[in-house]
Protein: Haem-binding uptake Tiki superfamily ChaN domain-containing protein
Amino acid sequence: MPSSKAPDTLNSAPQTQYDALLVNPANKTALTPEELAQQLADVDVVVVGEYHGHHGSHLLQSRLQSALFRLRPEQILSMEQFNLDRQDELNRYLRGETGETEMIEDAEAWDNYRASYRPLVEFARRHDLPVIASNAPADVVRCVGRKGPGYLDRISDTLRQKLPAKPFMDTPEYREKFMAAIGASHQADDTMSERMDNTYKAQLLRDNAMATRILQARTEHPEHQVLHVTGTFHSENGLGTVALLKQRAPEISVAIVSPAFWPWDVNEAPLENNRAKGDFIYFIQPLPDEFRDAQREREAMTARFRRSTDKSCD
Structure:
């Protein structure tokens, strides 16, 4: 069994891809998941960011889920990894009406579901906890990115009613972060090209959908604590989904647990460089490089883009 004791020093680098060094940046102390849960027990929404597919992120999420449950069994699991139009298919699995492979196919679960998200869903299922499919439908997001916000006028009324009434709410800080992340340069008048603006709108649709689903879940399950798992870009620095939650429901309390890669050179001051990412930070080992060959990387990216554009938005 892994030790439940917090590291004695913040210089204790994660030793494996499963390890996470959990830190409270306010007082620079290391924490165990159980100690973190004690500090979060009264929070309405706990948002745990992740690097998709990183074992350290997913193991920490699972440990925190069970630790929070022991203190506050009224818990909701909200997941970016399921799209909101597949809630019925997910519910059928939670009720025991379908098997796991059927659910993975019917609910269009992510490819790494078994390796990364099975423990979270199985814990919720075993304890009869709600699991919320919170992301916007992938096909709709893709087509908004290609065609623009007006694409929402072309989808069915049934699906449109499941999406946020205001699907493109944002904040200036998030726009700046997004544009910096995708390498776009601001024009002199601080406007974006139509293509980049559409891509940004697609991102906003995801964040607004997740914020909407979290608030709906709290309405349907009063007094429950929401544990929301999501890619870190959607939550770190209090932006994205978190900013929208605070805009729409300033009365609720939200805590952000964000990942950061531990540098091999500790002189890089890992805590100081990452402390603004969340209320709590967990350090994990960097992921290996996908490519070293630039040509192979370009070919892979081209193939991924081609697969996306092969699907019609008409």
